[in-house]
User: Fold these one by one.
Assistant:
Number 1:
Amino acid sequence: KTKKMLMNFVFICFCFLIISSYSVSSLCPSSGYYCEDDLTSPVLCPKGSFCVLGKNTPTLCPAGTYNPVTGSTPMLSCLPCPAGSYCPEGSIQPKPCLPGTKSATTQLKSKDDCQSCPQGSFCLGGESTTSGLCPKGYYCPASTEFATQFPCPKGTYNPSTGGSSIGDCEPCSSGKSCLFEGMVEEYECPEGYKCDGNSVEPIPCEPGTYNPSQDQTTCLACPSGFYCLGGGSTTSGVCSPGYYC
C-alpha cells in the first residue's frame, strides 16, 4: 500500500511538471517574449530591454548599453554604448554627449560621464574628439559649444587659432581700428580720422584740424590762412577776403 501511494505521488508530481512546462512554453514560445500574469498570450519584448524564457517582466538593458530592436534575447540583446554618447538604463538609442563635451570612451552611463571640451577647442557634441581648434578672432574656454561662441570684443583682435581666454584677444594698436567683434586683424585708420588706441572706432578730426595720412593717432592743426571744417584729409579752403584764419 505504501509503495502504491508513493508511485501515485510521483505520478502527480510528474504530471504537474509537464503541465507547468506546457503552460510556460505555450505562453512564451521562445526567448524574446515575456508573460504577464493577467495575459493569456506572450508579449514581444520591447526595445531597450531583453527577455528571458518564462519571466513575466522584461529586463532593462543595463546602463552603458542600448537595444534598438524588439524581441531580444539575453544572448543577442544590449549593445555597448559607442564613444561620443551615453546610455542610461533601458536606452533604446545612444544619447549624444551634450555640446561642450566629448568622450573617447565607450559604455558611458550618464551625461556626467562625458568630458568637458578642453580650452582652445570647441565641441559640437556627440563626438569622440574635439570638433576643431578655436578659429581666429575668437577664444574658446573649457566647455565651448561652437566655434563662434566667444568673439573677441570690439577694440581687440586675434590673429591666431586656438585662443583659450579673452586674454588672447590683443588690444588694437595706436593708429589702427578694430570696429567689430571677432576681428582677425586691425583695420587701417583712414585719412581725416585719428585712432588713439583707446577708441573702438576711428575718430573724425575735430574742426580746426585735418589729417592727410592713414594710421595716425592725432590730427594736424589747420595752417594759417586756411580753415578746416573737420573730418577731412585736406584743409577745407583758403580764408575768404575780409577774414583772417
Note: The helical segments are 2-27.
Number 2:
Amino acid sequence: AAPAAAAAKPVKAVPESVLKKRRTKSAIATARASKLLFDKKRRSVVRKHIFKSAERYVKEYRTAERLVIRQKRQAKQHGNYFHTGEAKLVFVIRIRGINNTPPKPRKILKLLRLRQLHNGVFLKMNKAIANMLQICSPWVAIGYPTLKTVKSLIYKRGYVKVNKQRIPITDNSIIEKRLGSYGILCVEDLIHEIFTVGSHFREANNFLWPFKLSSPKGGFEKHKLLNFNEGGDSGNREGLINKLIRKMM
C-alpha cells in the first residue's frame, strides 16, 4: 500500500504566468528562425540579381560605346561629321564661396544643393536646368561625366541621405531599403540609373548626398572669376570636367 501511495503523489502545478512566458519565448524563437531563413533566401536572390545586373550593364555600356565608334567611322568614310547629341547628364561643382554673391544666384545654388564650396551634384539636363546654370555659371564648373567618373564618385565619395543624416554606402541593403521599390537594389543599379538618366533618376539622385570634394591638387589651373572659354575655370568645360574631378577626388 505504501508504494501505491507514493506513486499517486500529485504533480506540482505550473503557474499560468510561467506557461505564458514559455509560449511567448517559443513564438519569438520561431519567428526569429523564420526571419533568418527568409533573409538568407532573400540575400541569395539579391546576390544573383547583382551579378546578372552587373553583366548586363557591362554589355550595355560596351554596345553603346561600339555603336558610337561605328557611327563616327561611317560618317568619316562619307566625308561627314557625327554629332553625338546633347548630353543628358551633367555634373556641377561649386568653385566659389558666398562672398559678393547676388540673391538670385545664391537661391539657385541652394536649390541645386550646392550650399558649400567644392560641393558637387548630378543633374538631368533640360531647359529649366540650363537656364539656372546660365545664371549661376560664374560660381560653378559644369561638364559631362564619363561612366568611369560616375563610378569613382559613387564608390569613393558616395554618401546617402537616411533620416536626414549623411550615411556612407557600406552595404547594398542601405540602397535596397530606400530604392528597392524602384528596382534599384545595389550600387551598380544606382550607377546605371544615374549614368543613363533613367526613369527614376530623380529618386536616385535625391537619395545621394551632395558630393564633398577636396581642393584640386595643385590648385585651379586658371582664374575662377573668368569663364572657361575666356581662359578661366567657371562655366561649361564639357568633357574636361572629368580631369578636374580626378584632381578633386
Note: The mean pLDDT is 87.
Number 3:
Amino acid sequence: MGLPSCLHYPMSSNIHLEAIGRIVSPAIPSTRMGVGNVKTSTSRRQRVFAIATSGDTDRVIEVKSERPMSEFKLKGEVDEATMLARSNFPIGPEELIFKTRQFLAANQGCSNPELLADTFQFVAPVVGPLDKASYVEALTNFKLHEAFPDLDPGFHHFRVDPYDPSRVWFTSTARGTNTGYLAGVVPPSGKYVEAPPQALSCTFNEFGLVTKYTAGYVMDKEMGNTGGLGGVFGLVYAVNPGLLPFAEAQPW
C-alpha cells in the first residue's frame, strides 16, 4: 500500500474501513504508528493508527480511540464557562459583546461619546491614560477614515475575560490604503498598510458604559508592514516612517 506513517482520514477517504481493526496483534512482525483525525457522526475524535506489515501486505489498524478533542483539557487550563457562570456582574457575556460592537461601530465611541462613562480612560502601549475628552479629541483629529477610506479594522475573536467578566477582549488585523490626507495635513502616499494582529479590550460598568478601552498591543511584530508598531503609530509609520521621529514611534 505504501501508506505514510502519519495518516489523515476524512470521511471521504477511499481507505477501506474494514481494514481498520481494533487490536494490534503481537504476532505482526512490523508496526508503524501514526495519528489521524476522523470525523464521526457524533464528534470529532483523535484516533491512533498503526500500519502493520506482514510480508508484502500493509494493513491499517486502529490501536487507540481517545476522548473527543473538545473534551481534552490541558493541565492548568481554566474552565471559562464555569468561571463566567459564577460571575456576579449584572451584564452577561452576549450583551457585553454586543455593546462592544456598538462602541466600535460608533467610531470607537467618538461619534457617540454617551457610550463612554465619565471616568473613561484610553490606554495604549505608549499613549495614555487619556480621559474621555482627550481621547475623543485625539482620535477625531487623526481623521483615519479620511486618510484610509477603505480601512478595514478586521475585528474578530470577541470573548469575555473569565477573570474579569466586565471586560471584552478582541483582536484587530487592520488593512487599508492611504488615499486621503492624514490628520488633514499629511498628503496621501497611496501605500497599502497591513497592520499586525493587535489585542484590544473594552471594560464596562454595571450600567453598560465603557470605562476603559485598550488598543495597539501587537501580538506578532513580524507581521504586516508597520514596523511592528500598533495603533495609529503603526499606520503613520507605514505611510511615512519619518513623520513621527521620537523613539516610541519607531520599530521595536
Note: Residues 93-105 form the longest helix (13 residues).
Number 4:
Amino acid sequence: YLGELLGRYLTLESEGPILDCEAAIQFVVNHLGVPEERVLLMGHSIGAAFSLQAAAHNHPGICICNSRSFSSLSATVQHHGPDFLGVRRSSALGDTIRTVAKYLVLLTGWELNSAALWGKMRGFKWIEFCKDDHIIPTPIQMYQAVGGSDFGREIELVSERGDNHNRRLSPLEWRQHFSLVESALNLTLNPDPNLSKLVLKPSIHQIPEPVTRHIHPRIGTDPVPPQVAQLQFVWEY
C-alpha cells in the first residue's frame, strides 16, 4: 500500500489501504473488463487483512489468497503488546497492557477482523500459513480462527530457521501456490521448472484515462493517483 511502499510510513487510517485495494479491483473490473470471478487478490500479513476488507464488503465473488495473516489486528496487538514493552505476558501488568492495546485498536478504527469476513467470500479462496511464524503465531493465525481449510485448500509452509513470516516461498511452495492460482482462475501456467529463478520486480504503471475512482462517503469521487505501484512477476531463464 502506498504509504509504506514509498517509504513514507504515513498510513494513519485503515481506510486508506482498503481504498487502495478497492481502486485496484475497480480498475481491473470496470476499466479492463475482467469478470470479478476471474480476479484474484493475494494479500500477505496485514495486506491480507486489507484486501479481505475491500473484497468482502463490495466484491464477495472474487478469488482471494490469505497468506501468513492474523485473525484480527486487535488479537495481534494484544499478543505482542507486553513483549514490545518488555513485560511478561503472564503478569498482571501484561494483562493490563493487552486490555489497553485491544481498546486502542478498537477506538482508533484500526480493527481488522478477518475471521469474521472470511465466510462472506463466495469465490475460490485459500489460506497459506506457517506454524512457526514468529510474527503471527498459531493462536492468532487466520487459519486457526476459521477452523482450518476450505474444501481442502490450504498450504502449510515449511518451518525453517529464522524468519518464517517474511521469507521467500520455497520452489515446492511456489508450485503449490501456482497450482491453486491455476484452479482459481482456470489458467494454464508454464513457469520455469526451476522456480528458484522466480523474481518479483517492482514497477510503476501509468493508468490511462478514464481512471478508476474511489467511491467513499467522505472522499467522494476523487480520482485515483495516476500512478499505481505494483509487483510484476517475471520468469527468468
Note: The longest helix spans residues 15-31.
